[in-house]
Design a protein that fits this description.
Elements lengths: L1 E5 L21 H10 L5 E5 L9 E3 L8 H11 L5 E5 L7 H10 L6 E5 L6 E8 L4 H9 L5 H6 L4 E3 L13 H9 L1
Parallel strand pairs: 1-2, 1-4, 2-3, 5-7
Antiparallel strand pairs: 4-6, 5-6
Length: 184
């Protein structure tokens, strides 16, 4: 299984690249790279064409759409036979325990293993293990102009698990959310 740090978004609400924000005494990119490296064969940062990283990276191959789906598809295009443990760069409360819990719950007979979003009750696509068998479903959604990885997950046989601590799934997208997060 490979790890993928989703970082190719525009960060327009935050006003700066979320992967470069520090929460743990280092950039979120560095924190997640080290964290996923404890569990995955290889780890990559998903980037758009305007970004660069000192870590191994995969550029978004599908430029027509601005969606996390693009990063996931690009990872599968890079190594289609690998499962991908995907984590968004704007989730600072993801810990070793979060990843270990997800991996221990993994069911390779399903197309993915995902946490259920505690607020919306849908699969949380931004911290999920995607099995190789879901690649064609993701690609078909993209080709049909559908950009929601969550909707693809909702329509597939996946293992849905409850987060032991819902806070671990929290995304930080604005300066106000960042200020609140660093106070915790």
């Amino acid at each position: 299984m490979n790890g993928l740090i989703l970082s190719g978004g525009q960060s327009s609400r935050m006003g700066r690249e979320k992967r470069l924000i520090q929460y743990h005494g280092k950039t979120q990119e560095a924190y997640l790279f080290e964290l996923l490296g404890k569990f995955c064969e290889k780890v990559f940062v998903s980037l758009n064409a305007n970004q660069h990283s000192d870590y191994p990276y995969i550029y978004d191959a599908y430029h027509e759409m601005n969606s996390p789906l693009v990063g996931i598809l690009s990872a599968f295009q890079h190594e289609p036979e690998q499962a991908w443990l995907v984590v968004a760069c704007d989730m600072p409360f993801v810990t070793h325990e979060t990843i270990q819990y997800l991996i221990e719950a993994r069911d390779i007979s399903q197309k993915a293993t995902a946490f259920q979003n505690p607020d919306e009750l849908f699969p949380e696509p931004l911290i999920t293990i995607y099995e190789p068998s879901i690649f064609s479903d993701l690609l078909q959604a993209y080709q049909q102009g559908r950009k929601s990885a969550m909707r693809v997950l909702s329509q597939q046989p996946i293992k849905l698990i409850q987060a032991p601590n819902p806070q671990m799934l929290k995304s930080i997208n604005t300066p106000a959310e960042y200020e609140e997060a660093i106070r915790k």
